[in-house]
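User: I'm curious whether this sequence folds into something compact or stays loose and floppy. Could you predict its structure so I can see for myself?
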Amino acid sequence: MTGIAPVTAPAALVPVTTAMAIDPSRRRFVSLPHGLTIAEIVARSLPELAPADWGRISVTLISGEGRAQIDRMLWHVVRPHAGVHVVLRLAPGQDALRSVLSIVVSVAAVAFAPQVAALFNVGSKFGISLFATGLTVIGTLLINALIPPASTPEQKNTYQIGGWQNRLEPNGAVPAVLGRIRYAPPFAATSYTEIVGDWQYIRALFVFGYGELELGGFWIGETAIEEYDEVEIEVRTGRDDDAPLTLYNRQILEEAVGTELVRPLPRDDAGEVIDGQPAEDEPVTRTTGADATAASVILSFPGGLVRYNDKGEARTHSVSLRIEQREITAEDWIEVTTLTISAKKLESFYRQHSWELPTRGRYQVRVTMLTDETESSQILQRCTWAALQTIRPEYPLAVSYPLALVAVRVKATHQLSGTLDNFSAVAARICPDWDAETQSWITRATRNPASLYRYALQSRANQRRVADDGIDLEQLADWHAFCDLHSLTFSKVYDETGTTLRDVLTEIAAAGRATPRHDGTRWGVTIDRPSDIIVDHITPRTSWDLKITRAYIDPPHAMRVTFLDEDNDYKEAERWVRWPGYTGDIETTEVLELPGATNAAVVWRETRRRQLEVIHRPDTYQVTQAGAVRVATRGDTVMLQSDVLDRVLRTGRVRSVAGGAVELDEAVEMEADEAYAIRWRHYGDDDDAVGS
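Assistant: Here's the prediction. I'll summarize afterward.
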């Protein structure tokens, strides 16, 4: 035992010396309690050495009576007495031998190169250096044949999903889809992770809003879901007879933890490991949600779990963890289980453990790493507590009306990993729609503003839903035909709180060239279109306080409209419409909002129409009438006469009518060879009428 001096220790301890066989100066001295077996002494003295490499250790016991070599087969039997000196000599691994032999080869090549070169009559320095290089190569090949270099095992590809980009909006508005639109819905409940073997799955639940909807064309980002493998999808369109979901049928609340689980070795102020002292537990504690009936712990091994021998070969490695629980008001911890996780993996992976709780309530869960940390570069065992799940058996939704829902279960693969893009689908509103052929309202998917106007009044999203007798359905049928004639549609999703019914009705009506109207009894619309029926003729005799307002504008070079293009998967698009008559470069633009427009051609046409309205409708006329003489209401066509507008007009009252003779209360000057017309309103037993 050259180079190792006996070490004394208190009578109750066993002194232990460890030394490298090829470098006796690298020694460590520890004192361990007596009663341990040789195997236990080796494990505590050389914690960085895997049991599979214990064959490199020779064990010698030294006492006053002499010394004895202990065979490996007796390590689990022999227990050194107190005061017996245990010497552990560690033979070098193959990497160390390779390094030593490589140095020897390099030195020998330099030493013998001149002699070998002389045999071939080569005396130049360059020639001698070539022989030295050749001898080095030959020596390296011999070393590789004797001690093969370590080979790195092939690393498998693993994939992880971190969630979706869709919105999670607690206390947000339930979406209301109108028309036909591609929509990325919010979550109906929180997503959660599921570990099956080495594979990670994500379950998610999305809400498209109030039913009934026609759902199709599902996408993740800009890729159709049919292009992906390992994706399960379950659709509920929001019908009254929809069955409960099966892919997402209970409440699971997942809390990200992300804390590393370690059992650190004791260290001094300089960060060096203190020999002879055991590692200490460092438990990590988290709390479940309320009313939990079960819990689940998800563990992550981000760097894999593996150890390497001296040949660089991967071997199975194990770690142990203890899971404990206690009620939030309790003091004592109850052990749930002790997990031993073994693997030979270079890639990251997960493990999950779920269990039922004794009673329903709120619990604290504690996880403790039982495997000591290691300083060995040959061992990978980093473990992280990734998430804690609170599990309740109840269905995740409790609403009194059916919703359009989609549940998705996605497996992490090469196609789907990391943070997933928005999940979206093309949704179409199913509601009563006017059918011109049968002259009746039938239920089907529609984008017609007239049908959506009625739906908005009667939808479950409207807390004060209007009955059929509160809507002018005959007028809506007429408006429906007008919208069909001009290809007017409306498609939009309302998913923000604070939106009023009046705002929604105004936007829908505007898409159909109309405005909302309520005559005190029923809802209807006023359509912006010419009418041949003159309801009233307003003159200075029947009105007063005439006001005329004109809007003067400096028009832009073009108007810019942003919309979702139905011909390009409802991606955002922009259309620039030049101002009528402008032909130069476009430098000045103004934004025009056309809510619900999704067709590029219709966007251009309706924008041009708005421009022409500005040009040809610059004036606003306002008069005041007494209630007794007012007969026109909003949307009616009336004639307006005023001396301010045109002096060729005269007004007066009709005193009498006898055949073709009409007597007025004012004198009217007439010129020969000119044609004149007269219009008046008379009162009789029937309704008021205008005659001419």
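Summary: Helices lie at 38-45, 94-119, 125-146, 449-458, 473-485, 501-511, 600-616. The longest helix spans residues 94-119.
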